[in-house]
């Protein structure tokens, strides 16, 4: 029987190399595996991806899925897919994580498309008192992907007592 990681990060079609590099650093720091779901907006050996991750890449438990269907097929029945989105989700502050959860983050430009959101077991949102309205006015539309990933990963790991 394959042992699953207590927590995992997955990026759906990431487009911005420095964000992925920063998330790889978070992955290494917290010892949480990272999966990149293709197509990617860059090559993994892109200099800007490597520069953002600096010398931490050897410590990243990295896997690459050829597409979302292949990624989803790798999940075990007791793993939950937690879609992280700026809209329409349960609040991070009250969410109860379970060992084996996979944190799925969307593209920087479009987030998680509706069919991907529907494939998730739940959607999770970071509460932002300074958030913009539904029309994108009056505040911050979203956090940077690498910042959101670090926040959710830390809260989940802390709640699961991984550190």
Describe the structure.
Helix 2 links the parallel strand 2 (34-37) and strand 3 (62-65). The chain is globular and about 40 Å long. The chain has helices spanning 17-30, 47-53, 68-74, 114-119, 145-159, and strands at residues 7-12, 34-37, 62-65, 81-84, 90-91, 101-105, 122-125. The chain is 30% helix and 18% strand. The chain has five helices and seven strands. 31% of the residues are buried. The chain has 163 residues and is an alpha/beta fold. Strands 3-2-1-6-4-7-5 form a seven-stranded parallel beta sheet. The mean pLDDT is 91. The longest helix has 15 residues, at 145-159.
What order do the helices and strands come in, and which of them pair?
Layout: E1 7-12, H1 17-30, E2 34-37, H2 47-53, E3 62-65, H3 68-74, E4 81-84, E5 90-91, E6 101-105, H4 114-119, E7 122-125, H5 145-159
Parallel strand pairs: 1-2, 1-6, 2-3, 4-6, 4-7, 5-7
Helix pairs in contact: 1-2, 1-5
Q: Topology as H/E string? A: EHEHEHEEEHEH
Q: How would you sum up the major sheet?
A: 7 strands, parallel
Rough shape? Answer: globular
- Please mark out the parts with pLDDT under 50 across 5 or more consecutive residues, or reply none: none
Share of helix, binned: 25-40%
Overall pLDDT metric: 91
The number of helical elements comes to: 5
Strand order of the largest sheet: 3-2-1-6-4-7-5
Tell me the number of strands: 7
| Distance from first to last alpha carbon | 25 Å
What portion of residues belong to β-strands? 15-25%
Radius of gyration: 15 Å
